[in-house]
Design a protein that fits this description.
- It is a single chain.
- The longest helix has 22 residues.
- Strands 4-3-2-1-5-6 form a six-stranded mixed beta sheet.
- By secondary structure, the chain is α+β, with helices and mostly antiparallel strands.
- The protein folds into two domains: about 130 residues, 3-Layer(aba) Sandwich (Creatine Amidinohydrolase, Chain A, domain 1), CATH 3.40.350.10; about 220 residues, Creatine Amidinohydrolase (Alpha-Beta Complex), CATH 3.90.230.
- Helix 7 crosses helix 8 and helix 9 packs antiparallel against helix 10.
- The chain is built from eleven helices and 18 strands.
Length: about 375
């Protein structure tokens, strides 16, 4: 629990930097990060010397269990959130209030302006998200567990694939197996693409059968409770063609080279470029149409982002990023390989351990 006072101390430094008296946290994920409270419909007011959670009676017991030392103001049934927020802000004598402009709705902002005419609202986007970029030991261990659960779930689900298995059945089996190994569930709805459907980087599952093609792309992850993992593997269920072999080896080479480039001080565009250069040299540059990777944590897509235009963003110890190059050929299919990587003080650590050599893809 000591991590939450540390996080509040850090966010207060951000509040001072924004030249504000306080921050109103309206993003529920950020409320969880700063307090440990896992419910929703609750806001957090952080001043320079106090933190007040504005919630309701549904969460009384949960709040006592998850954050017993937190000051809580519970609104009465039928009372809307905004009047209570305004009262808490006024009681704290706040003159300038930072708001999460990146996630606050236009309607909420407009109503806040009306409810707090004497308070200056300051748009201060991503203050908490910047802190979330660097994971502490507890977050790293939670992610490590999510990677383990995802790995075990995949290997168990993979062993049950037959030619008659559908994309949707693989999705369901991954969910079941992840829970069997202790996960809260999956990180997101898995992407399972048989044959030509694997060329859809974010395709949704259908009733297409594995036996309708020689290979299948599976993108999944596990939720260990709060923290998420994200992996992609290819499964060859039919003939291992020369085309598949060639493209797979290009993608694997690009991924391994990019992982090897991850270290403190490396900028995110450079790491993306390491993989992109290999794929482009093989004449598939136009078929790699997305960034190399992204951060993971409480949400499946967090900062930093590995991609073009990120040359000013440097990797730091404690960051966790995915590395997921891919080549997508409409009408034939796509190949992507993805792992979760922790930036360490001296380099990096691969948190995921699902085998990924070409022979490992083959079921037979």
């Amino acid at each position: 629990m000591a991590r939450f006072p540390t996080r509040l101390k850090k966010i207060r430094q951000q509040i001072r930097g924004a030249k504000s008296d306080a921050l109103l946290v309206t993003n529920f994920v950020n409320v969880t990060y700063l307090t440990g409270f896992t419910g929703d419909d609750s806001y957090l007011l952080v001043t320079l010397d106090e933190a007040t959670l504005i919630s309701d009676p549904r969460y009384t017991t949960q709040l006592e269990e998850e954050c017993p030392d937190l000051h809580v103001v519970s609104r009465n049934p039928g009372t809307k959130m905004l009047p209570v927020v305004a009262e808490v802000v006024q009681d704290a004598a706040v003159e300038s209030l930072a708001i999460e402009s990146g996630s606050m709705t236009v309607a909420l902002h407009s109503n806040l302006v009306k409810a707090l005419p004497q308070v200056r609202l300051i748009a201060a986007d991503r203050l908490v998200e910047k802190l979330r970029t660097i994971k502490d030991k507890s977050e790293i261990e939670a992610t490590r567990l999510a990677c383990y659960q995802a790995s075990r779930a995949f290997m168990a689900a993979r062993s049950q694939i037959t030619p008659e298995t559908t994309e949707r059945q693989i999705e369901a089996e991954l969910e079941y197996q992840a829970r069997r190994f202790g996960a809260k569930g999956l990180s997101f709805a898995p992407i399972v693409g048989v044959g030509p459907r694997s060329a859809l980087p974010h395709g949704t599952t259908t009733d297409r059968r594995v036996g309708e093609s020689d290979f299948t792309l599976i993108d999944w992850g596990a939720n260990s409770g709060l923290y998420l993992s994200d992996l992609t593997r290819m499964v060859v269920t039919g003939k291992l063609s020369q085309k598949f072999r060639k493209i797979y080896e290009i993608v694997l080479e690009a991924q391994l080279a990019a992982i090897d480039a991850i270290r403190p001080g490396a900028n995110c565009e450079f790491v993306d470029g390491v993989a992109r250069k290999i794929i482009t040299k093989a004449n598939y540059g136009k078929q790699f149409g997305h960034g190399l990777g992204h951060g993971t944590g409480l949400e499946i897509h967090e900062s930093p982002r590995l991609g073009k235009g990120q040359n000013k963003v440097q990797l730091e110890p404690g960051m966790i990023v995915t590395v997921e190059p891919g080549i997508y050929l409409p009408g034939w299919g796509g190949i992507r390989i993805e792992d979760d990587i922790l930036v360490t003080k001296t380099g990096h650590e691969v948190l995921t351990d699902v085998p990924k050599q070409l022979d490992d893809c083959c079921l037979a």
